[in-house]
Amino acid sequence: MMTGLWLFVALVMGHALADYPLQADFLAKAKNHKAPIPGIDWWIALANHALIHGAVVWVLTQSPWLGLAETLIHFAIDWLKCDGRTSFRTDQGLHIVCKIAWALA
């Protein structure tokens, strides 16, 4: 079992993997409800992106509840970013705050 600090480090690494190489250009564009890709339901793309993050948290914490919480919160935070209500930096900061919470849980 990982200590809280190492779990936090692993969660941040997992976030980097899920938000960059595992998201790729298609999901990054398709999840934006303000500039949707024709024929693509933005909410499906955003939900799948959030599910990737939830899966990473579930695997690392071994908690399906934290995985579900990550999925729902990640969806909301990214929706706010796409809506222009938060900046990229705020978006990333909120995601890291979640990783702190999961490591402490």
List the helices and strands and how they pair.
Layout lengths: L3 H16 L4 H7 L11 H20 L2 H19 L5 H17 L1
Helix pairs in contact: 1-3, 1-5, 3-4, 4-5
Runs in which pLDDT lies below 50 for 5 or more consecutive residues are none
Radius of gyration equals: 14 Å
In which range does the helix fraction lie? over 70%
> Mind describing the biggest β-sheet?
none
Which whole number gives the mean pLDDT?
96
List keywords for this structure.
105 residues
Can you describe what's shown?
With 105 residues, the chain is an all-alpha fold. It has one domain. 75% of the residues lie in helices and 0% in strands. It has helices spanning 4-19, 24-30, 42-61, 64-82, 88-104. Helix 1 (4-19) runs antiparallel to helix 3. The protein is elongated. The model has no long low-confidence stretch (mean pLDDT 96).
